[in-house]
Amino acid sequence: MRKPLIAGNWKLNKGGKDAVQLSRNIKEGVRDINNVDVLICPPFTALMRVYETIKDSSVKLGAQNCFYEMEGAYTGEISPLFLIDVGCEYVIMGHSERRQYFAETEDIIGMKLKSAVSVGLNAILCAGEKLEERENGKAFDVVKRQLEGSLSDIPEDYIQKITIAYEPVWAIGTGRTCEPDVANKMHRFIRNWIGEKFGNKSAEKIRILYGGSIKPHNISSLIEKEDIDGGLVGGASIKANSFLEIIIAASKRTRY
Ligand code: PGA
User: Fold this and answer.
1) End-to-end Cα spacing for the chain
2) Nearest to 245 by CA among 221, 218, 210
3) Which among 234, 223, 247 is positioned nearest to 174, based on CA atoms?
4) Predicted TM-score of the model (pTM)
5) How far is CA 13 from CA 98, 254, 255, in A?
6) Which domains are delineated in the chain?
7) Percentages (nearest 5) of helix, strand, coil residues in the chain
8) pLDDT for 86-112, tens place per residue?
């Protein structure tokens, strides 16, 4: 059975000493929880300090992005090797905000993903449709295109280092969560796609997270669904209380 993963995407929040405080509170709050993997993804500038804060705990560290080149004349970019160097185990890839505001295409996301996994990072690949795409019955086509675009030519063994996050764009930061049954259908679709491409064993193993307005009150009904293996949490991950409530709710999942 897949162990749930609850990941906090802090986005452009908590850059300095607030990051240390928040990560300390999270570390203390999860001390007795061992049936949920917990990951936090602060901004780049806080990674080192957060690593120092959580390194003696089970909380894992991730970044929100990285470049596909390892080094060179790329002003302002961050190499996947630098993430390893500051203690990251994970990196988020292809978040809808990066697609929308930073013009990241499937090709770019695919290259980033390959580079990150090649140095040993676990990648969380985000995919999800916009509201009008769902309303026009295109949600499955869009997600399939995103998966194909970023995963079609990765080496087969890389799939073990990949987590998928299904994040319907219309649910991100809006307070409008996807119905658990609707989300689960998409998760099943994603798992089937992985099965066709990488085999049933990989499909059974891969964790598929839901993301989009996860809050303490709705995580339980999501995580009880067969193909929902955890959550990528934005707004509710930058307050220790709400993030911890989500983790505790996930730890009480009855489906094992
Ligand atoms: P949200 O963000 O929980 O604030 O909707 C989720 C995400 O963007 O990963």
Assistant:
1) 7
2) 218
3) 234
4) 0.97
5) 16, 33, 34
6) 66-251 (3.20.20.70)
7) 45, 15, 40
8) 999 999 999 999 999 999 999 999 999
What residues are in contact with ligand 1 under a 6 Å CB criterion? Answer: 9, 167, 172-173, 211-214, 232-236
Question: Which residues belong to the active site?
Answer: 95, 167
Q: Are 166 and 120 in contact (CB under 8 A)?
A: no
Six-digit token string for 213: 């307005």
For residue 172, the ligand 1 atom closest to its alpha carbon is 5
For atom 6 of ligand 1, the residue with the nearest CA is: 234
Ligand 1 center to residue 214 CA distance, Å? 7
Alpha-carbon distance 162 to 34, whole Å?
A: 21
Distance CA 176, CA 166 (A): 15
Q: Which long-range contacts (CB under 8 A, 24 or more apart) does 113-117 make?
A: 113/150, 113/151, 113/154, 113/162, 114/68, 114/154, 114/158, 115/66, 115/67, 115/68, 115/69, 115/70, 115/80, 116/66, 116/80, 116/83, 116/91, 117/154, 117/158, 117/161, 117/162
Q: Indicate the residue type of 87.
A: G
> Strand, helix or coil at 225?
coil
- Residues 179-209 have pLDDT tens digits of 999 999 999 999 999 999 999 999 999 999 9
Which tens digits make up the pLDDT trace of 14-31?
Answer: 998 999 999 999 999 999
Alpha-carbon gap, residue 153 to 160, rounded angstroms: 15
Q: Which atom of ligand 1 is nearest to the CA of 232?
A: 9
How many C-beta neighbours within 10 Å does residue 103 have? 8
Identify whether the C-beta of residue 206 lies closer than 8 Å to the C-beta of residue 123.
no
